[in-house]
Amino acid sequence: MKIGIVTQPLYNNYGGLLQNYALQQVLKRLGHEVKTIDFVGRTSFTRYLLSICKQLLIAILKRRRPQIRPYVAIPTFRNPIMADFVNNHIDRTRIVHSYNKKIVSEEHFDAVITGSDQVWRPIYNSYIEDMFLKFVPDGIKKIAYAASFGVDTWEYNAELTKRCAKLAKRLDAISVREATGVELCRTYLGVNAQHVLDPTILAEAEAYKPLLNENTEEQDYLFAYILNITPEKQAYIESMAKNKGLNVIIKSADKNATLSVEEWLSMIANASMVVTDSFHGTVFSILFHRNFYSIVNAERGGTRFKSLLSPLGLDYRLVDDKQFKEFKDTLIDWQYVDAQLERQRTESLNFLINALI
User: Fold this and answer.
1) Which of the given ranges, 117-126, 302-311, 312-321, 340-349, has the highest pLDDT on average?
2) In this predicted model, what pLDDT tens digit does every residue of 134-183 receive, in sequence order?
3) What are phi and psi of 114, to 5 degrees?
4) Does the pTM exceed 0.85?
5) I want to staple 295 with a disulfide (CB 3.0 to 4.6 A). Which of 3, 203, 277, 280 is the partner?
């Protein structure tokens, strides 16, 4: 089967690139041909203003209160160090600047899958209806795998809810990344969904071994992968490193990224300890059996962390960024964690297999 993947643009986010890589690896192992639709946005403040004018006009004509979303600048280029990974490890279509039926027909896709990385969170998607596969014609299988809202509250306005609910009902199979997403789908979209694993976990640690550097021995450093650094986080990280007698390496992502995807993965795999406020930083700490702590920022989506860690008995590894607590350096029972993940992998893989039949 020829399968297309729709996800967040392949720009400068380690987790975003690796979840796409992971889903491709899983689908290929199942015998499918896979390509990610390589979307590159063309947003500008002028286009945003034109969109606002259109919304205001519609609101006036329909005599209702306009609901205006804030302007969010979308990057339109790939960081060169990320581009190398995309070019070498992710199979893609030609670059498109809008999702449309033409690319589906051109690639002869039998199915299109949307997911995962907060694809259904409106503040991150000005094209969110395409994340519900609006552009995919009837007759093509439409599947959501681990589609993520990122939060446990409903962020859609009434009009967007109505449109996306209609699109959700066109999907042949729906799964979500967070347990809370099951209830959001039922309550607001009127559809049933299954809770499944993020693609990065579904693929297992073995999928990433070809990407790691040759030296895989644990080294004496604390790797802090922090998306939103604050003085409080900095102090907490340094205190933890001092307590453990470790050197500190702090890295970020997006425009501040300085590591290649392979280097980033290797930094986690070889660290004595990892501290991160990233969902995927947490995922890879678990896959590589690293001693870790996850700093949760509720605004970025705290439910993602809880949904991942609670079934594994790792809730105590969560740290609230508003109230830093003294960490307890308890040994993690990796045998128990791996057993729980294996059970979830089986359920998640079965969803994917059945959805593609």
Assistant:
1) 340-349
2) 999 999 999 999 999 988 999 999 999 999 999 999 999 999 999 999 99
3) -105, 135
4) yes
5) 277
Q: Which residues make beta-bridge pairs with 275?
A: 224, 293
Q: What pLDDT, on the 0 to 100 scale, is given for residue 161?
A: 97
Query: Tokens in use for 133?
Result: 């596969």
Q: What is the pLDDT of residues 221-256, one digit of tens each?
A: 999 999 888 898 999 999 999 989 999 999 988 777
What is the distance between the alpha carbons of residues 99 and 136, in angstroms, rounded to a whole number? 9
Q: Please list the alpha-helical segments (H only) found in 30-172.
A: 45-62, 80-89, 101-107, 128-131, 158-168
CA dihedral 209, 210, 214, 215 (to 10 degrees): -20
Give CA–CA dist 115/268, Å, rounded: 24
Distance CA 180, CA 182 (A): 5
DSSP codes, 237-292: HHHHHHHHT-EEEEE--GGG--S-HHHHHHHHHHEEEEEES-HHHHHHHHHTT-EE
Q: Are 140 and 171 in contact (CB under 8 A)?
A: no
Q: Do domains 2-203+345-355 and 210-334 have the same CATH topology?
A: yes
- d(C-alpha 271, C-alpha 142), whole Å: 40
Asked whether the predicted pLDDT for residue 45 surpasses 60, the reply is no
Q: Which CATH class is domain 2-203+345-355?
A: alpha beta
How do residues 325-354 score in pLDDT, each as one tens digit?
Answer: 666 678 999 999 999 999 999 999 999 999
Torsion, Cα 91 259 275 289, to 10 degrees, reads: 50
Q: How far apart are CA 253 and CA 270, in angstroms?
A: 19
Six token digits for residue 335: 């045998």
pLDDT band for position 280 (cuts 50, 70, 90): very high
Write down the domain spans for the chain. Answer: 2-203+345-355, 210-334
For the chain, give the mean pLDDT: 90
In order of 100, 181, 220, 251, the CA distances from 199 in angstroms are 25, 16, 30, 23
Distance between CA atoms of residues 176 and 196, nearest Å: 6
Cis peptide bond prior to 116, omega within 30° of 0: yes
